[in-house]
Amino acid sequence: METFCSNGKLLITGEYVVLDGAKALAIPTKYGQRLTVERTKRTILDWKSYDENGNLWFAEAFAFDDSNILNQNKNENAIAIRLMQILEAAKALNPDFLKTGSGYNVSTHLDFKRTWGLGTSSTLINNVAQWANIDAYRLLEKTFGGSGYDIACAQHKTSITFQLSNAKHPIVNPVAFDPSFKNQLYFVYLNKKQNSREGIETYKTLNRVNDSILEDITAITEKLITTKTLYDFEVLLDQHEHLVAEIIHQEPIKSKLFKDFEGSVKSLGAWGGDFVLVTSKSNPSTYFKSKGFETVIPYSEMVLN
Prior knowledge:
Elements: E1 2-11, E2 24-40, E3 44-50, E4 56-64, E5 69-71, H1 78-93, E6 103-110, H2 120-132, H3 136-142, H4 149-155, E7 160-164, E8 170-174, E9 185-189, H5 196-206, H6 211-226, H7 230-248, H8 253-257, E10 265-267, E11 275-279, H9 285-290, E12 296-298, H10 299-302
Parallel strand pairs: 3-6
Antiparallel strand pairs: 1-2, 2-6, 2-7, 3-4, 4-5, 7-8, 9-11, 9-12, 10-11
Helix pairs in contact: 1-2, 2-3, 2-4, 6-7
């Protein structure tokens, strides 16, 4: 039996503009996903996926030969179709993948709720890439697309900066992002899973990014990493929110939902859902729960360092 593991992700800076070359700060999370593979005598790939509570949420069997992967039950389920696409893309990148004359029992196990947006897809892509012995970035490009920062987080155990070069090859550097005020940082779930692909497509249609904006976001990222005080950190977060709001023509989440909150609130990733980063001198759970947002996770419980 083989087991492959990948970390979840949060994009602290550079949402959207990372696609155009801005330097982004991203952090791997303690929450992730593992994939286990066991060979069997039947030439069938029996796939089962389990949630964070160990409950089965998806099951399918696939037949395969040297060139094709077939849905054994002819199921039109969107998840089964997407999984077939991932396996077929992996096989295209490595023709020897699934070419052993044996079958497989495969299972995936999440550490976090699927609705949280911490990387259900990216951790799966990275795990399948490890199993198939292929480049995870190439597999991502052939399936979900995106900048690839989530793949970098899946593969690293420390915070990273991520930047796409002109050749569209990522520059990934581990960084010592460990703010002294981290006990005043929290992640709040907005009760909505945001579709990153839709957000990216909308952003691309705006065509509003220039070199000056990219330089500003990159500068914020670099300053944020070495910021010594919570006040300076909040100033940078607010500057970042203002810049991105102007680019995508959306109202910042704080002015939209949390006008009376004393700390900073910053969107992470595609705006409108998933988690936000919150600064607060005391635990803000009571405030956010009074607004209907029950999931408030302290920085140290979320971030893998």
